[in-house]
Amino acid sequence: FNTTIGVVATDLALTKAQCGKLAAVAHDGLARAIRPAHTMTDGDTVFALATCARPAPDHDTFQDVLATAADAFSRAVAHAVLAATGREDAPAYLDVFPSAVRKET
């Protein structure tokens, strides 16, 4: 039973509905990076926010933002998994699979 909580943010002016869509698409990125995801016992949650520092995007730009958000969220989760440190009772990914990354020499 695991829970993943994340945030995806943009400086674009988005509506509440667009932020909801952005969070939903970031969930797709989560599912790309972690399996299983979105099970009945998970508390996976992604929040989206928009600072509105830049103008609202047009339709095509918003589609690009959504695609980029899913990719970025997936990469962020993968980086977090590889950077995590474990505990004695809960080993991290690299504790279990130390050869998953190449050590720099």
From TrEMBL:
One of its GO terms (molecular function) is aminopeptidase activity. SUPFAM superfamilies: DmpA/ArgJ-like. It comes from the Bacteria. Transmembrane segments: none annotated. InterPro entries: ArgJ-like_dom_sf, Peptidase_S58_DmpA. Belongs to the peptidase S58 family. This is Peptidase S58 family protein. It comes from Nonomuraea terrae.
